[in-house]
Each structure stands twice: as structure tokens, then as C-alpha cells.
């Protein structure tokens, strides 16, 4: 069985890893390795104009990236939904940001409710992690064999742990006031609204 150290080592070497999350299977790469990022885009046949989301292990990992945590973001991060299937779209504060985030106005970021993935993230730091479907496909296959069949090439490492989910995370843009749900996923927007109003 592949362990967290093997995954972290593959990512440090510039590999792209297919691995399970708490929602759909994802493709992960280090954000500071251009070769790995290029391979990830190629595997998904994803246009370079479509930015990749970021995963971190803990809420405390967000501000060091230069991200601004407004009241809405803090409320969600303190809620029982985090870690979990909620992706927060955040802007940047006035301080320094990570070099690999230069040129971006915002990022979609998530803290997965998956112990194995968070243990990898604690070893590697923030990772680019995106659903393992070919760009334009409406959903990510649940089975690894089906995922590999529709990708444009092979990841450097494959971590298989049963079937994934078909439904992705719910995306909440925390920058406007009130926040806006940009994609309905596993978490009902009504639950998010209740947290925002509490």
C-alpha cells in the first residue's frame, strides 16, 4: 500500500499524483514546479487560462499564502463544515503572497476531510489539487480505471482506495458580501447560508 511519504516524495520529484479526496478523485502537483503543473494541465487537457484550486492541511496554512480571511471566510473555517467538502474562494491581503500565486486575483482553496490527504499536505505544504476528469467532462468517474482511461496520459503515481464520489465540493466565493455559492456540490447551500447568518 502506498503511504504518505511515497506520495510526498513523488510530488517533490515533480510528479503528478492521482489520489482520493473526501469528494472526487483528484490530481495533485506542487505549485512551485512548472514541469509538474504543465503535466497536470496536459493530463486534463485543461486550458492554461483556467486556474487550478489549492488544498491545504489546516486553516492556519491560508494566511501565510497571502490570502485575506474576511469575516465570512473565518465563520466558515470555524464551522463543522471544515475540514470538508466546501471550497472557499479567497482574495489576497496587502502583505506578501507566495511567488507561485503572483498574477492571480483570487484562489479557490479547500481543506479536505481526509486524514491521508491532510497528512500528505502536512509533509508537502499547499498543493494544486483538481478533480481528475478530462476538461469538459461534466463529472469525475468514481473508479480509478475509468479515470485513467479518460485522462490524456498517465499520472506519475496512482493511489487507489476504492470508489470516489461523483459529486464535488460546494464552491463559496467569500469575496462579495454576502458570499455567493458558485457551484452546488456535496454541501447544501442552505446549510452554508445558515452558518453565514448565525
Question: How would you characterize the overall build of this protein?
Answer:
- With 198 residues, the protein is α/β, with parallel strands linked by helices.
- It folds into two domains: 1-57 and 111-166, DHBP synthase, CATH 3.90.870; 58-97 and 168-198, no CATH class.
- Helices cover 27% and strands 18% of the residues.
- It has six helices and nine strands; from the N terminus they run αββαβαββαβαβββα.
- Strands 7-1-2-6-3-5-4-8-9 form a nine-stranded mixed beta sheet, with helices on both faces.
- A hairpin with a 6-residue loop joins β8 (170-173) and β9.
- The longest helix is centred in the first third of the chain and has 11 residues, at 34-44.
- The model has no long low-confidence stretch (mean pLDDT 94).
